[in-house]
């Protein structure tokens, strides 16, 4: 039940009176012209009385209502209470919320999944695996209709050339174009109406093949494409996707069946010579090196470093290189392309930065000359070779090299040994082999001759070492080479010699 409390206000005609009234329902200030209380919605006209009712003087003759008298529902106006949602409305609201959440999630997922970077990452993976290539590529020419078979040469090349694939990705990321201009990464329409669709647009190449004998059969990826009709036969091939192809020319010359067969990375509209001829070449390299012809091992260089290629069918893409494997790792020479003019000639396969035996002999001799001087004087100022080069200059990182510290400790130990009267160190280099990353693996022997104080003979010991030596860097050193490390000494001889 609601009880009304009358709040008095000064009369307007009294001195100092103001027109401020108060809601009899909630007590909040209201204006005299308000019909309803802005705070609780109470009908203020009911509180003031209807003009059609008797005047105040008339009302005074009537029994006055007590404050405790109830106010009927018709005498007040209040806001209707909110009704709870029906089950149907609740289900609709939940469904709308779920749909909005799904839509937002879909937009976020699609924006990421179909982004330029994410699409390129998937495309590069597809190139390596050979999957989904028809989705990843589009043709830049009406001459070239793409299919899975036509796109496989891209996978064939890049699956075997990881560095080239990384370079392609870097080029497409940076500029949207490969270095040779054959591939352009660009937007081609949309996915699901909203998201950009990126593809690699490929430009075709138009290679030409030639051979030198009538009747030679030419094949492309083991499929016959032509038979030579003259001794100077040429055929231009239709539009092709840049990639790796197997070209072959086969025929009979002078009673001998010859084949010119090789894999070619075709990236330009150039001529590929499939002449049937042979070549014989002598290769000179480090003894024991493996010889690779057109990427496949064909033999090993003999003890003098020589390997003979005899009557090998020549191809315009024919190439050779050598590789040497040791406990330190694998080293390879640069790849040399063989030309028809190299027939009956000699070709050198040199390892980059490999030390010559003469340079190695001088280096080791000077190093142990400095060590011998230190062992005889005990003074670091004497730890130099005859040219005045400090012993530390022979080592990578100089005095901070652990092997320098070992050699210095050994030489000073000899000086401090009272049983030694003299000490000499003579060196000899037995071999120089290529190591990984331009290093040289030098095998050398040091002959230590100890003059004993109380004996009339010398004690002689031979120790063999294997040192890793590299070209000197930009350090302030007088040496052309620097010793990286050397392995544990192996004693090869121990004897006494009369003075």
Automatic annotation (TrEMBL):
Residue ranges annotated for the TcaA 4th domain, each copy included: 277-349
Keyword Ribonucleoprotein assigned: no
Ranges of Low complexity composition bias in the record: 51-75
Transmembrane feature ranges: 92-111
Keywords recorded for this protein, A-Z: Membrane, Transmembrane, Transmembrane helix
Residues covered by the Zinc-ribbon domain: 22-44
Stretches for region Disordered: 48-88
Signal peptide: none
PANTHER family on file: MEMBRANE-ASSOCIATED PROTEIN TCAA (PTHR40038)
Protein name, as recorded: Zinc-ribbon domain-containing protein
Lineage: Bacteria, Bacillati, Bacillota, Bacilli, Lactobacillales
